[in-house]
Amino acid sequence: MTREDLIHQIKAKQSFLCVGLDSDLSRIPRHLLEAKDPLFEFNKIIIDHTKEHCVAYKPNIAFYESLGSKGWESLAKTVDYIPDTHFTIADAKRGDIGNTSKQYAKTFFETLQFDSITVAPYMGIDSVSPFLEYSDKWVILLALTSNKGSDDFQHMTDVNGEQLFEQVLRKSQAWGSPDNLMFVVGATHPEAFKGIREIAKEHFLLVPGVGAQGGTVAEVCQFGLNEDIGLLINSSRGIIFASDGEDFGERAGESAKQLAMQMQPLI
Amino acid sequence: MTREDLIHQIKAKQSFLCVGLDSDLSRIPRHLLEAKDPLFEFNKIIIDHTKEHCVAYKPNIAFYESLGSKGWESLAKTVDYIPDTHFTIADAKRGDIGNTSKQYAKTFFETLQFDSITVAPYMGIDSVSPFLEYSDKWVILLALTSNKGSDDFQHMTDVNGEQLFEQVLRKSQAWGSPDNLMFVVGATHPEAFKGIREIAKEHFLLVPGVGAQGGTVAEVCQFGLNEDIGLLINSSRGIIFASDGEDFGERAGESAKQLAMQMQPLI
């Protein structure tokens, strides 16, 4: 999906919500376990009830991988089922040397047809560039993550006063453009968005950490929005596990709608 | 596998060689493509011919994942086939928030029964600690990698003169011990081993980058060895793709033996 298409979808749906498919087999409603492919069945119902309120889906690859080849099949079916009108993100946080990154690109952009993949920056340019060789595909590079451990290294400061996550934002702009490169910035650091927008004006930011992790849409939007919206705000557990009963689809739809309604006046 | 067992295996086999199973379907000998599971068939023959010369195997997960659920099955069969006397490394370079890392730990330590996994440090402690909850399992944390892009961020220096990879080595020692934590240090940085051994005296180091990437056993060992050997030197392409003919197994065995013979006098 191109940048223009994504902006078009945001305007059409009046939402910049991303639904995180962290579909943990141990947490999905028990009655689904009788289905042939419980994880896919769960995702299908979640997608059916949320698609009018969101513009993107982000399967968290760990929850599929942990089930071995079966989980991999559930993932493939899920990606196929997501409508073409929605941007798809493989939340895989890969990052390796060039010839290995090429294989990961093949996995997520060819074997599975995701629009984008999250990538860890630690190993530098060769972790990123093989993904950028695909047209209309995206790298979403970790910058400032939403977890507690983001404090361990991401705020390390060099002699010029620049922090590690700021170096990632700045240096990687030589590798990709706002047309194929986004950044992950956690909603748990609302104070950081102002400075981040000074370094990455045009780039889309994928923002996890709203809901279960404590961030809010309003805080993120205050400094995070740009001229083209430039945000994909993700919620996972707050939507997909809104209920563990037979009404889980409807309840997920309501939670997604609630977040989308907070976004609508800003579009 | 415990640290003691690993040291015992190194002494028994007179080798600290790790064979990297970067088993790229497009590079394995053509006659294997007729087999039911070409990737597993390839690995089986490589393992049969190299096991007396090495102490560890490191499947590079990207090459299996890129084939979808089929590749996942080849990987599972490979891990089962590796003898219990050999240390197994899932070269997966995962790194995520706590609840996701737990899933990755389940994948690589339960669904597949690897002894260890490579982990990227960017997201800090929550990326690492869920793996360390398993007894006799290991995290191998990226410190100074062998690729060109290692220059992009890993050498970033703070106001006290400490580089990012040195911070990773130092801080992570509060999370794990030499009994469950190793570090990745590329053979392409032989000059760095002296300083690294000052920070991480007892830890095992997994050293990629010998062979195709240009590093040598002698250079790595000069400052890398410690009292318990403390090194696993990996070679992938130089061993497994030593020949693309029907003799690929024998040739892999010879290449592995050649490296092991450079190690033997040092043990």
Name some characteristics of this structure:
267 residues; TIM Barrel; eight-stranded parallel barrel; 8 strands; 41% helix; globular
Count of domains of chain A: 1
Oligomeric state as shown = homodimer
What are the low-pLDDT stretches of chain A, counting only 5+ consecutive residues below 50?
Answer: none
Overall helicity of chain A? 40-55%
Q: How many H/I helical runs of chain A?
A: 12
Please report the two chains with the greatest interface, counting residues with C-beta closer than 8 angstroms to the partner's C-beta.
A-B, 57 and 57 residues
* Strand fraction of chain A: 15-25%
Instruction: Note the run of SSEs of chain A as H and E.
Output: HEHEHHEHEHEHHEHEHEHH
Q: How are the strands of the biggest sheet of chain A laid out side by side?
A: 1-2-3-4-5-6-7-8
Q: What's the count of strands of chain A?
A: 8
Offer a quick outline of the entry.
The structure is a homodimer of 267-residue chains. Chain A is of the alpha/beta class.
Can you walk me through this structure?
The structure is a homodimer of 267-residue chains. The first copy, chain A, is α/β, with parallel strands linked by helices and 267 residues long. Chain A has 12 helices and 8 strands. Chain A has a single domain (3-266), classed as Aldolase class I (TIM Barrel). An 8-stranded parallel barrel of chain A has the order 1-2-3-4-5-6-7-8, surrounded by 5 helices. In chain A, α5 (98-111) packs parallel to α6 (125-132). The first copy, chain A, starts with a helix and ends with a helix. Chains A and B meet through α3, α4, α5, α6 and α7 of A and α3, α4, α5, α6 and α7 of B.
